[in-house]
Design brief:
globular; mainly beta; 5-stranded parallel sheet
Amino acid sequence: RVKIDHDNKRKETDRSMKPIIPAPDKLPARTDLVYIATEAPFNVPSDGEKDATLKLQSVLNKAGAEGGGTVYLPQGKYKLTDHITIPAGVELRGVNDFMPRGKQLRTLIIADIAKDKGNPDNTPLVSLESSDKLGGSGVSGLAFWYLSQDYTNIQAYPWTIQGKGPNCWVQKVYLGNCYNAVDFATYDSDK
């Protein structure tokens, strides 16, 4: 005979794992501004062949200068040949809510920075800025892949994502073949 307790209250003698409560989603400083990076005037290429670095940094800077907001990368492949910085109050967001196996829609960041291969102390691929006025910055819904990382000869690379102050976030992100994934310890990230 089994008794089912439907009141969902834990007894002090219950030693099983406590329920997992997900952290609330972080939000950019302004939720009323969304910049679709692939549309005019930004026209960030999403084919995985053309370099997206300068155009993507341009839209991130515009969002930062206008007080924050979301820079949205639709499904596609975005090739970076240099590092990017996400200004305080800005979120870089893709389509990924989770990473199931097999084929699925995704926003893929392809890192192709030759000077980083074998140099783990170089600048992170993505730096998350923070300020007292606008709060932190973050990434959500992205997948990262290093084009030159060879699983038969693993090479060191710098951090993929590094928080540079408090209130920065990384949510719903897939880090495929990164050597150093996420760093929230080098800079004070408390708050």
